[in-house]
Amino acid sequence: MPATALLAATGRRIALYMHWQYTPYTLPLIFGAAFAVSVGAYVWKRKFDTPGALPFIAVQLGAAAWSLGTALELASVEQSAKLIWIQVQYLGIVTIPSMWLAFVLSYIGSRFSQRRLHLLLTVVPIATLLLVATSDQHSLLYDSTSMKMWQGKAMLVVHYGPGFWFYAIYSYLLLLIGSVLLLPVLWHSPHIYRRQAILVLIGATTPWFGNALYIFGLSPFPYLDLTPFCFILMGATVTWGLFRFHLLDVVPTARHAVLEQLDDGVIVLDSSDRIVDANPASRRLIGRPEDSPIGQQATAAFTHLPQLADLLAGDGFVSAEIAIGEGTERHYCDLRIMPLFDRQRLSGRLLVLRDITERKRTDEIMIRAQRLSAAGELSLGISHNLNNILTGILTPAQLLSEAGLEDPEMNQRLETIVTSARRARDLIQRLGRTVREGKEEALQPVVVATAVEEAVQGARPRWHHEAGARGAFIQVKTDLEELPPIAA
């Protein structure tokens, strides 16, 4: 591998050059290299499985190599030593542009083939490293190199060849492509993701701005490459994004593809119960369709939902039904609160809200229907009993009325009893029909002879008792043909 050969050759030759000079730029560059390694190590340990983490780490290591190589180049006195440290710088120079684009593609959730991407992004860097490793045999990278004194320090002056300019154009092209790909995130993503994208753009473009000033001779420090110094600003920007805006926690485009289209409300809290994400469905369900709660503490965002706030005060998994709103705006949600863990440490909580208003209304309708059905059954039972009682009143009254009494006043009273009993019977029958019509019962086969016999036997005790009280005897005979069952 060219990189391995370059490192081996560098290690063998470092001992030959022991003359150093102090510059005020060396220590800041070494600090910048250590800072970049620290950021990369943090991401490796905490966020390695996050999309974009691996190319992000590669960018940080590339920045460290570039900064350290520049620091040692400035500290070296001999031209040959400076050229060696420039070769170390190229380990970062060829890594950062390609890994920057790979990071952006992962960050936005691109479906571009990873294998094809790796192939395209490694061809030019490998070719450039080959040119660097053999730079003493050609002038493709450097037309010439010389030494000049600047501010009392020995500085290397490089006149670049066509290979360098080709790679410079390639690098700026990758930077431009990555920046353009981030623009939709700036336009369409929630506030916290727009801030993430802004920080990523600032962190990425600042070093290349310093690089452009250097290679085009516009820098106020004519022999000093400003790019590694800008890496310090990039590291500070990225660190702020990691801790303040949770960079690399959730990629925005993947979020848009999943969360924005869900009918269920999804709210993500970090470990301090600050809302880091909330899809449109969740904002609608909690009564804030136009007001995004992202960035707020959950206790402040849910002050109008005391039931939800109380549930958030607990720990662990929560499953509950909550009511939101008042009057006609009142609706019901099934709430699930699930803890989120990262390497066995609590990293936040996930709230899922599902609108169950229609289900609740259906359940209420079913309960009312069951209550009405029970009331109907009770009404039928009461109607049947009342009908039996009225039969016991109406039958003897009719018999007495038909037989006639000597007292006209008593006849009039009997007629009143008969009329009132008939009206009551009609009302009870109408009530029974109404209840039965409200019930969709399946028709059952009924044997007519059996039904009549049961009715006669049911009435027998009543007329037998009444007839016996009057010294009379009633005999009922049924002689029914065998008829087929009917549906009733």
Q: Based on the structure given, which CATH architecture of the largest domain is correct?
A: Up-down Bundle
Global Rg: 45 Å
The H/E string reads HHHHHHEEHHHHEEHHHEEEHHEHE
**What percent of the residues sit in helical stretches (DSSP H or I)?**
55-70%
The CATH superfamily of the largest domain is identified as Rhodopsin 7-helix transmembrane proteins
The end-to-end distance, rounded to whole angstroms, is: 93 Å
Q: Which strand-content bin applies to the residues?
A: 5-15%
* Oligomeric state of shown chains: single chain
Q: Can you tell me the number of structural domains?
A: 4
Structural class: alpha+beta
Per the principal axes of the C-alpha atoms, what is the gross shape? rod-shaped
Q: Please, how many helices? A: 16
For the largest beta sheet, what order do the strands appear in spatially? 4-3-7-6-5
- In the CATH scheme, the class of the largest domain would be Mainly Alpha
Number of beta strands: 9
